[in-house]
Amino acid sequence: EAQVTQNPRYLITVTGKKLTVTCSQNMNHEYMSWYRQDPGLGLRQIYYSMNVEVTDKGDVPEGYKVSRKEKRNFPLILESPSPNQTSLYFCASGNFDSPLHFGNGTRLTVT
Amino acid sequence: AQKVTQAQTEISVVEKEDVTLDCVYETRDTTYYLFWYKQPPSGELVFLIRRNSFDEQNEISGRYSWNFQKSTSSFNFTITASQVVDSAVYFCALERNTGNQFYFGTGTSLTVIP
Question: Strand pairing partners for B41?
């Protein structure tokens, strides 16, 4: 089944404790991206990647890192999480001329 | 700069009523793509439609229809004979021609009352 898989679905952590949210897609998509969803703000793009080893900042990259060492994986790294990064995170993948496929989301709480 | 505006934050309708969700966008790109996604209470994002800027034909898919008007920079979504299962948050989005940047509206929360 074609899908984008994010893990974990829920994560509660404390300020400053490094964490990684994984994202994997099995559709051989070149493009992958991360979004955060906050009430009243919709979805905002954090980082995106057009292909392996190619990443770029979206609208809200501060406090986040990503890597794209393999085509299928695009992990989101929070090296020192803060409470303002409490949010619902979505990973997405796609090819040009096709819609984005989203993962099921990761709800992160930073205390 | 790119921007997508969904001015309707929340809408409530009674089942079987028709409802239109508004989407207004801003871009200076001549080629771009517009989307609608549905987010049901379970939280996942479900793709509904993708339309490129050169195709202004209205589209109908079952009870769903979309009206794209470049003259007013709008891409409105109508649900005919709404059902309780239509209750969700709906997002309108714009994709730049570069294919790497997407801009979402803030969403419209639709509640269909039985």
Answer: none
